[in-house]
Amino acid sequence: MDALLEEGPIEVVVSDELKSIDDVMQKIAEHKGCGTKGGSGKASCGSGAGQGDMPAEIWEKVKNHPCYSEEAHHHYARMHVAVAPACNIQCNYCNRKYDCANESRPGVVSEKLTPEQAAKKVLAVASTIPQMTVLGIAGPGDPLANPAKTFKTFELISQAAPDIKLCLSTNGLALPEHVETIKKFNVDHVTITINMVDPEIGAQIYPWIFYNHKRIEGVEAARILSEHQLRGLEMLTERGILCKINSVMIPGINDHHLVEVNKAVKSRGAFLHNIMPLISAPEHGTVFGLTGQRGPTAQELKALQDSCEGEMNMMRHCRQCRADAVGLLGEDRSAEFTTDKIMAMEVNYDLDTRKAYQEKVETERQAKVQAKQAELESMAGEMSDIKILVAVATKGSGRINEHFGHAKEFQIYELSTAGAKFVGHRRVDLYCQGGFGDDAGLDTIIRAINDCTAVFVAKIGGCPKNDLLKAGIEPVDQYAMEFIEQSAIAYFKDYLQRVKSGEIAHVVRGDADIRQGALISA
User: Fold this and answer.
1) Distance CA 281, CA 294 (A)
2) Strand 388-392 versus strand 436-437 pairing type
3) Which of 49, 283, 382, 503 has the most CB atoms less than 10 A away?
4) Residue with the larger pLDDT of the pair 343 and 74
5) Average pLDDT over the chain, rounded to an integer
């Protein structure tokens, strides 16, 4: 059997009987959404929200958490430790791989760690990367199918590095029985993967679960899984633990159904919903990959996220990290911290140095927020229904600081008179290969961002610039090293003026209502 569940004793605090359902639901209602107003961008506490948009106690939990705050992900790093190899369910989109450095997706690790090795690795990473603020356990199996290893790791880290936030990601099957233990270890961020609330749909995603010492298949397995996921979510939110819901968008199976999932998790107090695209390349060896199940296009994913945003705050900056990822979202520095290397390191965990560095990060972050606000105020009174997408090449820190040819991904922003809104990212092949441009690579980049009006870069060569212009994408390098959102708003103001003057035409293109500015004169 693929799922060999961990054996061995551990002190697990099983939940007492919950209070009356009225009390529970009142607690959930108080916590739910943190006083948000859906996806309007007003008084939101979702991933794009800022300090003034939520209660102070919630802000303290998310302000430097790169997964729970879109703004924070430009500045702060996270790491995952692979201490949980066993899993208690089988997903058709999952294939756990060990000793693998060539794939970037959940369930993949290069090394499995003991709790003691994981604790030293955390200290080594946190000492080397002082902006690393979050430690997560996300596999490569399920953390709650490996409770002894998971909670021992949390215990060691909380003792040695009390400033680091603790998180776990789970499929939710074993969640209800471990809620009190999660609370006991001060794990105040939990991600639950919920792909359905209809067991008939769930049976198409999950072949089986391992529950109560037996393997259960089909609709009954999906029903049990869904019940445990939703009950666990309610129990966590009732205790003030922030919950993010991950959902994998699988075209033709659960894509339309995820709207119902969104409503169900919002009503139970979830803080954030992250709808991710199915990864289904055949070489990954998953059931969906081998049967030809396609993943969604970027436009399909955005349309679904947009349709759910009115119901709940959406996370759009997820990178679907490996179970041993290290660094900023979108980068992986795990190769710098192999077991052999960290065991040979003399680690000096200097809390004061970490705090001082993070204070500098906060100063930079506030400067970015203020610059964005000042630029937005300069557009006050501007009236237009025009919206455009732009792509941004960045290495982090919220700045346009990446060369076009070196970009492995582009961050996508939607620009309107309301400002700059982060809506996702697009992975691409490197254009520059050994100092030369790759024409085939350029074609894939253009296809990836062909719904964008412009691409913001720190630098770009003449050949790719001309090809982008021919494709109707304006290359913009005048804002090199400047803040992304401030620059994007400034560009949009100029764009509107050019449209009004007749210098360029604003064109709506494509079945997905993709808006793109077509250059009339360059």
Assistant:
1) 8
2) unpaired
3) 49
4) 343
5) 81
Strands (E), 68-156: 77-80, 89-90, 132-137
Return the H-helix or E-strand segment holding 263: helix 258-267
Specify the 3-state DSSP secondary structure of 86: coil
Structure-token match 């369930």, residue found: 107
Contact 167, 135 (CB under 8 A): yes
Q: Which amino acid is at 479?
A: Y
pLDDT of residue 515: 35
pLDDT at 157 over 90: yes
Structure tokens at 367: 């400067």
Cis bond leading into 66, ω under 30°?
no
Q: Which residues of 262-280 are buried (b: 16+ CB within 10 A; e: fewer)?
A: bebbbbbbbbbbbbbbbbb
Sequence-distant (6+) residues with CB within 8 A of 122 are 79, 81, 135, 157, 160, 161, 164
Does residue 393 contact residue 456 with C-beta atoms inside 8 Å?
A: yes
Using CB atoms within 10 Å of the CB of residue 23, give its burial: 0 to 12 exposed, 13 to 18 middle, 19+ buried: exposed
How does DSSP classify residue 420? E
Whether pLDDT at 19 is above 50: no
d(CA 505, CA 58): 44
- At the fourth CATH level, the homologous superfamily of domain 351-519 is Dinitrogenase iron-molybdenum cofactor biosynthesis domain (3.30.420.130)
pLDDT of residue 398: 86
Query: What token pair was written down for 289?
Result: 């990959």
User: Which helix (H) or strand (E) covers residue 149, if one does?
Assistant: helix 147-160
Q: How far is CA 133 from CA 32, 80, 171, 399, 420, in A?
A: 25, 11, 24, 20, 26
The span from the CA of 413 to the CA of 431, in Å, is 21
Enumerate helices (H) and strands (E) in the chain, giving the number of each. 15, 20
For residue 63, which phi and psi values (nearest 5 degrees)? -60, -30
Question: What are the domain boundaries of the chain?
Answer: 21-344, 351-519
pLDDT digits (tens, 9 = 90+) for 397-411: 789 999 999 998 899
Chain segment 360-387, per-residue pLDDT in tens: 888 888 888 888 888 989 888 888 999 9
Q: Which residues pair with 297 in a beta bridge?
A: none
CA 202 to chain centre: 23
CB–CB of 426/455 below 8 Å? no
Alpha carbon distance, N-terminus to C-terminus of the chain: 62
Domain 21-344: CATH superfamily is Aldolase class I (3.20.20.70)
Q: CA–CA separation, 483 vs 374, rounded Å? A: 12
